[in-house]
Amino acid sequence: MTDKPKASAAQRRSAARFAAIQALYQAELSQLSAIDIVREYSDFRLDGDGGRDLDVSNEDLIDPDRGFFADLVQGVAARMIDIDALIDGALEKGWTTKRLETVLRSILRAGTYELMAREDVPMRVVITEYVDAAHSFFDENEPKLVNAVLDRIGKNLRPGEAGQN
């Protein structure tokens, strides 16, 4: 196996966000705890010794920021009620988090958590990262929804930062 390419901190965080979306999706479908999901990803899905069982095409993937990944997954699990309430409040009337497709729900939950708890990451960066992630899974409408919902939540949670846009 060859060494992974050197990645910037921003690239490693982007990879962690993408892995967190997948882990949150898996957690919801499997009913595993956040701690178990983080452990499974660390042992078998992210780089490292456990990753040797993965398809060799993963060699060139960026090694995610593991601490950031764990914070996203465990943070969403710990604050799910508050996160879903914020998402519900930002959705169009008649829509709730429960009505959303599971991957879309995972994207919005991770993005909302990051807006809530990771003030070290600028609001615009959070929104852009999750809109980009949505483009990896969906066509036009879902990324627009992610943009609109996270923008509403961001303006609510970070009004000073939102005023700078």
UniProtKB/TrEMBL annotation:
SUPFAM superfamilies in UniProt: NusB-like
Domain NusB/RsmB/TIM44: 15-154
InterPro entries: NusB-like_sf, NusB_fam, NusB_RsmB_TIM44
Any one GO BP annotation for this protein: DNA-templated transcription termination
Keywords: RNA-binding, Transcription, Transcription antitermination, Transcription regulation
Record's GO cellular component terms: cytosol
Keyword DNA-binding set for record: no
Keyword Magnesium: no
GO molecular function, one term: RNA binding
Entry similarity comment: Belongs to the NusB family.
Role: Involved in transcription antitermination. Required for transcription of ribosomal RNA (rRNA) genes. Binds specifically to the boxA antiterminator sequence of the ribosomal RNA (rrn) operons.
UniProt xrefs under PANTHER family: ANTITERMINATION NUSB DOMAIN-CONTAINING PROTEIN, N UTILIZATION SUBSTANCE PROTEIN B-RELATED
Protein name according to UniProt: Transcription antitermination protein NusB
Organism: Thalassospira povalilytica
